[in-house]
Structure prediction request, 240 residues.
Amino acid sequence: MENEQNPIVDSEDNALKQRRIRSFVLRQGHLSSGQARALEEFGPQFCIDYSPNALDLEQAFGRNAPRVLEIGFGMGTATAEIAAQRPETDFLGVEVHTPGVGSLLKLIGEQSLSNLRIVQHDAVEVLENMLPVDSLAGAHIFFPDPWHKSRHNKRRLIKPEFVAQLVSRIQSGGYLHLATDWEDYAMQMLAVLSAEPTLENTATSPTGFAERPEYRPLTKFENRGIKLGHGVWDLVFKKK
Prediction:
């Protein structure tokens, strides 16, 4: 029959999909009652459905303002704090985990934030399909999964091809800010960003790492790590 599926082909297609780079690992998480209420109450206003078509950012935010992308905002505490500090800037957060989306929506409601929108989807596909070239004033990626086992390092998000695509969405003069608490990942990030010809390092330290910008708040986890002597590395690069 013409419409009969070939199980071998289907298996190969699925394997290809599994090998495709993703910005996340899907983990199950408990959705609190407050997060569930926030999803129901604020989701329709502040969440944008994924679409394989370019997003009209001015329409999405209802104004013309600088836009910053944040990939993987976790529970959204830092994201909400940054958005509150910078009301003149719009922030588009991308996160796959429902509890994190619900948590940020709850903070949006509690703090009456109007300059945040959320896409709950794989950031790689959002970047490829929804964000036009030169549409961003900046991008944040704070504490991405370090894939700390050597055999898993290849799964890390910060790779030359991903960075090149991300930077293509940032306007000239815009910035890319990364942070990690894994030293070997920090060194990899520094090497990848330094090799991208359209970027220049803003750090004045000979190490190549930047001082933490004032707008990035310390998380509870980060504070605890610093007290235990753990390092945190910030990288802030500017697009030429």
Observations:
- DSSP finds nine helices and seven strands in the chain.
